[in-house]
């Protein structure tokens, strides 16, 4: 195993208080987001949108790695330069989503299992050759009456661990993403219990599979009440409960934690990450970073609307969110920063 290379990549991804930009929406997910804004849903608009993101001036000041999708990693700029080259040229590390999505779990109505292990070893070899140096696999746990079940938690944890072991064998740093969804009316306390139970199961499986902890990054949800819960807790409460949960179940040796945003508003995601770092950074064994998709991209997408004329303004919005989240990593984010025009 390329242990030193894995550790080096992990450390570079977490360095300088930067974070990850997830731009790995599958075609159906990307199309769904385009459809909501009446943007045409085809390969060329998806390519043009990703070109807009990757040509945002100064993105590498705040973003250490971008997560691509299989279609995107093979795409080129309008001038013919491969995306991978453009990413490397600005000092950002290319990564790749390697799961092939979630499917209904047999015998468990309402629950999902993530697929993509078949043939993964060969796909990882190909992605490494193309230039990817880290990968992502996402497990999702829906919250409802009697769910998630142990069966769902364990099956997803096992798949995540087999994926992580294969990644490390191929020289790719695994991002291990385990998401308790925000849909529902569950309380913060309920999310806390499920987050701890699922992460504990994931780390047990990572141990069983012999995954090298210092060469991996955890991508968890923040501990949050469901979107329909009547009690929406303060930023400070969310920060405290999330940090305590992670301290309880996440080994000190992992390379870093990079949160998903999960459908929170952009500002709340920054505020909550900021509160965690501002209050607790000095006593955490791992960096607390971000690996947001919607919480970085959404304002830019809403400005772009598929129109060339809006590209520059969209890039400014993207750059702004990346900047806010780097500030949140430092515990230096504030509402004043939201008003700064870049
Ligand atoms: P969000 O930040 O939009 O939750 O996306 C993160 C991600 O990579 C989902 O797999």
Account of the 3D structure:
The protein is an alpha/beta fold and 342 residues long. Helices cover 48% and strands 15% of the residues. The strands form two sheets. An eight-stranded parallel beta barrel has the order 1-2-3-6-7-8-9-10, surrounded by seven helices. Helix 8 runs parallel beside helix 9 and helix 11 (294-304) packs antiparallel against helix 12 (311-329). The chain is globular and about 50 Å long. The N and C termini lie far apart (43 Å). The mean pLDDT is 98. The site of 1,3-dihydroxyacetonephosphate has 10 residues, from helix 11.
Give the arrangement of secondary structure elements:
Blueprint (H helix, E strand, L loop, with lengths): L2 H12 L4 E4 L4 H10 L6 H12 L8 E6 L1 H4 L9 H7 L3 E5 L4 E3 L7 E3 L5 H11 L3 E8 L8 H21 L2 E8 L7 H21 L8 E4 L14 H15 L6 E4 L6 H15 L7 E5 L1 H11 L6 H19 L5 H5 L3
Parallel strand pairs: 1-2, 1-10, 2-3, 3-6, 6-7, 7-8, 8-9, 9-10
Antiparallel strand pairs: 4-5
Helix pairs in contact: 6-7, 7-8, 8-9, 9-10, 10-11, 10-12, 11-12
The structure holds 1,3-dihydroxyacetonephosphate.
Query: Main beta sheet: strand number and arrangement?
Result: 8 strands, parallel, barrel
- Percent strand: 5-15%
Structural class: alpha/beta
Gyration radius, rounded: 19 Å
Which ligands appear in the coordinates?
Answer: 1,3-dihydroxyacetonephosphate
The helix-strand sequence is: HEHHEHHEEEHEHEHEHEHEHHH
Strand order of the largest sheet: 1-2-3-6-7-8-9-10
Number of helices: 13
Tally of DSSP β-strands: 10
Helix content: 40-55%
Q: Tell me, what's the shape?
A: globular
Low-confidence stretches: none
Mean pLDDT: 98
**N-C termini distance:** 43 Å
């Amino acid at each position: 195993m390329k242990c030193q290379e894995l550790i080096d990549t992990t450390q570079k991804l977490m360095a300088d208080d930067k974070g990850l930009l997830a731009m790995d929406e599958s075609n159906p997910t990307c199309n769904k987001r385009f459809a909501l804004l009446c943007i045409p849903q085809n390969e060329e608009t998806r390519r043009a949108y990703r070109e807009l993101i990757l040509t945002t001036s100064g993105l590498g000041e705040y973003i250490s790695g971008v997560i691509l999708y299989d279609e995107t990693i093979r795409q080129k700029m309008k001038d013919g330069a491969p995306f991978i080259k453009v990413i490397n040229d600005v000092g950002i590390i290319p990564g790749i989503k390697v799961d092939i999505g979630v499917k209904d779990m047999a015998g468990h109505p309402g629950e999902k299992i993530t697929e993509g292990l078949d043939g993964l070893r060969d796909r990882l070899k190909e992605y490494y050759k193309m230039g990817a140096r880290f990968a992502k696999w996402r497990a999702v746990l829906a919250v409802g009456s009697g769910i998630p079940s142990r069966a769902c938690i364990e099956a997803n944890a096992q798949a995540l661990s087999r994926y992580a072991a294969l990644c490390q064998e191929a020289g790719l740093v695994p991002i291990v993403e385990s998401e308790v969804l925000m849909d529902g009316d569950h309380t913060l306390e309920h999310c806390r219990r499920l987050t701890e139970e699922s992460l504990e199961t994931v780390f047990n499986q990572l141990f069983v599979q012999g995954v090298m902890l210092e060469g991996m990054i955890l991508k968890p949800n923040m501990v949050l009440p469901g979107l329909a819960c009547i009690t929406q807790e303060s930023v400070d409460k969310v920060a405290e409960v999330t940090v305590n949960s992670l301290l309880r179940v996440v080994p000190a040796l992992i390379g870093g934690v990079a949160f998903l945003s999960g459908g929170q508003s952009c500002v709340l995601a920054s505020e909550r990450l900021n509160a965690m770092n501002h209050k607790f950074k000095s006593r955490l064994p791992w960096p607390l970073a971000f690996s947001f998709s919607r919480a970085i991209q959404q304002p830019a997408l809403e400005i772009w609307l598929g129109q060339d004329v809006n590209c520059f303004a969209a890039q400014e919005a993207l750059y702004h969110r990346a900047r806010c989240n780097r500030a949140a990593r430092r515990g230096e984010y504030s509402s004043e920063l939201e008003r700064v025009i870049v």
